[in-house]
Amino acid sequence: MSRWLRQHRYACLVALRRLWSQPFSSLSNILVISLTLAIPIIAASVLVSAQPVVRQIPVSPEVTLFLQPGAAAGSAAQLARRLQDEHPQEIQAVRVVAREDALKTLKANPSWADALSVLPSNPLPDAVVVTLHESAGLAKQASALAQEWRQLDHVDSVQLDSEWVRRLEAILGFVRIGLGLLAIGVALVVLATVFNTVRMQALTQREEIGVARLVGATESFVRRPFLYLGALTGVISCLVAIALSALALNPLNAALARLANSYGTQVVLRLPESLNLLLAVVIVAILAALSARWSVTRNTRF
Predict the structure, then answer these.
(1) Does residue 263 share a domain with residue 120?
(2) Strands in 54-193 per DSSP E
(3) Domain check: are 153 and 209 in the same one?
(4) Parent domain of 15
(5) Quick one: average pLDDT of 214-239?
(6) Cα–Cα–Cα angle for 63, 74, 150, nearest 5°?
(7) What is the separation of C-alpha 84 from the centre of its chain, rounded to a whole number of angstroms?
(8) Could you confirm whether the keyword Cell inner membrane appears in this record (predicted)?
(9) 72-89: string of b/e by CB count within 10 Å (b at 16+)?
């Protein structure tokens, strides 16, 4: 066991010495991989930060029926009972929002209070808010019901409130797929960069490797420092990429805060969880080591 540890410690030290002996080449390779890795990390930060915002929005579609301004008092309650009786399977809940209650809610908002105070009368209509049950064809069913209810008496307009939420979910799904494809592209860049780095190191150490074989060095002894070279390059590049991403999020959050404040909300971009970042470092190190093994196998056959 102690012999095995000594061999790996020696291989790690040799890899570090080779990185240090060519600082410009090593730094160039690390920067290339780091900048490439920073792109999916920032994209993942945006996706991770957007998901809680979407989860806070009710996904079950709420169809709002606005009654005509001249509708008689009690028409909203009658309409609510009618809808509940005619569509018991589709409707989960029905509530009536009286025009007086809607006006009080708006007046409680400082942004609307001054504007509403100068109005001679209440311009808001009574409304019936219908929450639908979840189902497989929910979006299509909600659109069909909204179209049907537009033809009812005393109904001025019908609004499908949650349709944009489903569009947002579709966009997030598209972003996830794009992020997966981007991760594949980044993996290919890491493999190619490490492969070329190890290839140049193997060609540079060609004579040294030949002498080592002549004195009885095994293939694993020859290859092991190159594997550590690839793995160390991947780990250092990942750490640099995480640091660059954290720095990039500062100006992005400042710009996003100004945009979010104009909408009266707060959104902050954060890096993915530490466990996910650690997993990414391990995956990149394994990919880099595999690429190094492939490169040293191909370029030390002499």
Answers:
(1) no
(2) 62-67, 91-97, 127-132, 155-160
(3) no
(4) 2-56+166-299
(5) 78
(6) 35
(7) 39
(8) yes
(9) eeebbeebbeebeeebee
pLDDT for 3-26, tens place per residue?
767 766 777 777 777 778 777 877
Domain end residue (candidates: 161, 194, 219): 161
Among 119, 139, 161, residue at a domain's last position: 161
Q: What is the pLDDT of residue 240?
A: 92
What's 66's domain CATH number?
A: 3.30.70.3040
CB distance 266 to 260 below 8 Å: yes
**Token digits of residue 177:** 């797929």
Neighbours of 257 (CB within 10 A): 14
pLDDT tens readout for residues 234-288? 889 889 999 999 998 888 888 888 877 776 667 788 888 888 889 888 988 888 8
d(CA 10, CA 4): 10
CA angle 295, 301, 302 (to 5 degrees): 140
Count of structural domains within the chain? 2
